[in-house]
């Protein structure tokens, strides 16, 4: 699937959106590239958040737990301060990240039922700490949460676990590398040789492509 294929007719009305990123912050160099891309995307999306009544939030998962690194906000200044230092490394508690995302979205839904949620998960699909992620993903799917999975898998041996997660969530699957390709997310579909991601990824380019894709999904009918 191409990010451009996600563009559909713009919805009418003044409902705001809640875009919640859930990002695998485990590992080291590759994790820093992911975090740079997400930080760029969050700040870009917040530039028009106030006018659109949108909120942006960020859940990270690493080590033995997940944390709400950026509670949903429409403030660029708040986000810049909270995202200035995002630790990376350690094991991968994927299920904890999905469960925290679910709790965060549920809490925000109670505060404002008219706000449309969108979950953006950046992961290679591996989990090395905590419970199996399947039940947590199915919990989000049953709640009707719209989602997209961005595959961050690196290396020659590919397990394809992000695709499994996308299937559980009923979500489209993209790769971080194709979002960083020239054209701002108009790269080849996932699975082709050009869709490799790694420590050498251009975080700013990936962030721009990620923000463009989120805007397309946010504006979809």
From TrEMBL:
It comes from the Bacteria. It holds the Pfam family VWA_2. Transmembrane segments: none annotated. Signal peptide: none annotated. InterPro entries: Mg-chelatase_DI-like (IPR052989), VWF_A (IPR002035), vWFA_dom_sf (IPR036465). Residues 18-150 form the VWFA domain. This is VWA domain-containing protein.
């Amino acid at each position: 699937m191409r990010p451009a294929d996600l563009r559909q007719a713009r919805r009418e009305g003044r409902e705001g959106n809640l875009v919640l990123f859930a990002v695998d912050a485990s590992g080291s160099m590759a994790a820093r590239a992911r975090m740079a891309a997400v930080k760029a995307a969050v700040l870009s999306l917040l530039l028009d958040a106030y006018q659109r009544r949108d909120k942006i939030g960020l859940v990270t998962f690493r080590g033995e737990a997940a944390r709400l690194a950026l509670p949903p906000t429409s403030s660029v200044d708040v986000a810049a301060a909270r995202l200035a230092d995002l630790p990376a490394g350690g094991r991968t508690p994927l299920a904890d990240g999905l469960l925290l995302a679910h709790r965060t979205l549920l809490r925000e839904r109670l505060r404002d039922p008219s706000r449309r949620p969108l979950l953006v998960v950046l992961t290679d699909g591996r989990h090395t700490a905590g419970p199996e992620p399947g039940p947590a993903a199915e919990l989000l799917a049953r709640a009707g949460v719209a989602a997209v999975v961005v595959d961050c898998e690196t290396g020659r041996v590919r397990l394809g676990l992000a695709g499994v997660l996308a299937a559980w969530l009923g979500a489209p699957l993209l790769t971080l590398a194709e979002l960083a390709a020239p054209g701002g997310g108009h790269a080849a579909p996932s699975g082709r040789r050009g869709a490799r991601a790694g420590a050498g990824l251009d975080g700013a380019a990936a962030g721009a492509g990620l923000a463009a894709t989120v805007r397309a999904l946010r504006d979809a009918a």
